[in-house]
Write a sequence for this structure.
């Protein structure tokens, strides 16, 4: 069965780029996070750190991303349990997680 990935993104264009990575890896974008093994979360979404903690508690792997000029948000995501990377690295890191 293909991996299911939940995408929590503010920017629809960026979300479509992430969805293309998911599709290219043979995985599926899921609508219900409870049915997914991996979540990709924009750190600038309201309540992102709480959402990340919740996903981690459910046993999900979480990849968080955000602007490099907002290091405090990336740090908060790491402290919540996510792997957090700048926007410029999220597509490559996502592809790597989907290959594993």
């Amino acid at each position: 069965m293909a991996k299911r990935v939940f995408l929590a993104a503010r920017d629809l264009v960026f979300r479509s780029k992430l969805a293309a990575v998911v599709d290219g890896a043979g995985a599926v974008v899921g609508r219900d996070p409870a049915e997914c093994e991996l979540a990709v979360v924009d750190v600038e979404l309201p309540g992102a750190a709480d959402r990340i903690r919740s996903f981690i508690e459910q046993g999900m792997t979480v990849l968080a991303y955000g602007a490099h000029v907002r290091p405090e948000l990336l740090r908060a995501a790491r402290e919540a349990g996510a792997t957090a990377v700048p926007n410029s690295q999220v597509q490559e890191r996502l592809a790597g997680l989907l290959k594993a």
Observations:
- The beta strands are 4-8, 28-30, 38-42, 61-66, 83-86.
